[in-house]
Amino acid sequence: MYSFNHTLREENTPSDVRSILYHIARGVKYINFSLRAGNTGVAKSQNSSGEEQLTLDVLSDNIIIEQLQYSQLVACCASEEQEELMYFPAPRGKYTVAYDPLDGSSLVGANLTIGSIFGIWEGGELNGKKGRDLLASAYAIYGPRVELIVALKGKGVFIFEMNDVGEFMLTQKKLELKDTSKYFAPGNLRATAIHPKYLTLVEKYIAEGRTLRYSGGMVPDLHHILKKGEGIFTYPGCAKHPNGKLRLAFECAPFAMIFAEAGGLALDVHGTEILDLEIKSPHERTTIFIGSTDEVKNAVKALQ
Ligand code: AHM
Ligand code: MG
Questions:
Q1: What is the pLDDT of residues 91-107, one digit of tens each?
Q2: Residue ranges making up the domain that contains 104
Q3: What is the rounded distance in angstroms from the CA atom of residue 299 to the CA atom of residue 304?
Q4: 96 Cα–ligand 2 center, Å
Q5: Residues within 5 Å of ion ligand 2 by Cβ?
Q6: What is the CATH number of the domain that holds 283?
Q7: Could you tell me if the CB of 245 is within 6 A of ligand 1?
Q8: What local confidence, expressed as pLDDT, does residue 90 receive?
Q9: N or C, which terminus of the chain has less Cβ within 10 Å?
């Protein structure tokens, strides 16, 4: 079984990207240990979206900031937990990283699976970047087992599992998604109040006898699709959030790249590829339909 470093080398990953991913992997390991034994309470603070922060949100964010600084390669980073972009005085810094240190924190109290998400771009500025420009994306899933999933541009998607001494070992490579699927993960069902066509779509899935797999965490919901090799996750806008709730920079763009590398597709409600949306501000949101290509195209078509 190959280690994380060995695999990245074997795939000829540029050394800077490899080094940033190595620091991310280390951060993920520390976050995992904090999750197992840490304080799951609230931090008495709010993030930039006005959501209550957990102690673990703050801790995870600090862990990642520290690791990205240690890499000495990151000039700019955007965190879901920070209002503003952060600029590091790194001598070799010529990369930008956007990340959500703890996605699905509302599930922490119920001890459900959560994750962390990362996107790595070349350059010292986030604004103006697109998912299509990502050099690499990654997410970690903290379930009964901890896995780190990495997509390398043009090289596909790799899954690593943390062993009992905290090393990430390769378990699957070059993942491929089928074009159609029986699995559906319908996010933001409150959107059916303003989109009767969304209700019709979900009713169609039910009538067709499809299998519901929905946990309320983007990471486990999308991980299920990747591991099964098929499925669709939908998150349209609703009255409160016309562009949905999920963020382009730290959630949707990195996942769109990962799914594209596995032969899948991610569109917004207008049918634009998520990979082609330009990031104009770190916290902007987008609707998303992601997963098996034909399912995604059909779902977006059904909503027009
Ligand atoms: P978070 O980053 O504040 O944790 O929110 C993101 C999460 C996603 O993991 C999930 O898909 C979505 O929120 C579910 O939201 P809701 O249940 O509010 O529709
Ligand atoms: Mg999030």
A1: 888 999 999 999 998 89
A2: 4-173
A3: 9
A4: 18
A5: 100, 103
A6: 3.40.190.80
A7: yes
A8: 78
A9: C
